[in-house]
Amino acid sequence: MKNSKTQKPEPYLASDGKTIILVGKNNLQNDELTFKMSKKGELWFHAKDIPGSHVLIKDNLNPSDEIKTDAAELAAYFSKARLSNLVQVDMIEAKKLNKPNKAKPGFVTYRGQKTLRVTPNEAKIKAMKM
């Protein structure tokens, strides 16, 4: 069995039943997801100002508000704010993310994001797991 540090980000199925949302579960998976797996136009999500997973809506360049909420809930759930209500989650096009020189894996900077507020629901998250 592979070390979980090197496994690929985990897939979740959005509410529409066809859109895949990927979740990085550690700093190496976050780097892989954000800088190697993302394509132009795909949306990226991260809990605002707290440690957590990088989340990416794959192959859907015009996701509905419901799919954006699904991704934001995943980002909130897989963060230090898992048990909080109305978690702030940043949303930005993945290709607008920057990795500073010599930054640790998983560290990114960005400007121009939109911020969503969501309350993660554990039952919903578990049902989305593929």
From TrEMBL:
For the NFACT RNA-binding domain, which residue ranges apply?
Answer: 15-109
What one GO molecular function would you report for this record? ribosomal large subunit binding
Q: Which GO terms describe its biological process?
A: rescue of stalled ribosome
The terms describing its cellular component in GO are: RQC complex
Task: Give one Pfam hit by family name.
Answer: NFACT-R_1
Q: Which InterPro entries match?
A: NFACT_RNA-bd, RQC_Subunit_NEMF
What is this protein's record name? Fibronectin/fibrinogen-binding protein
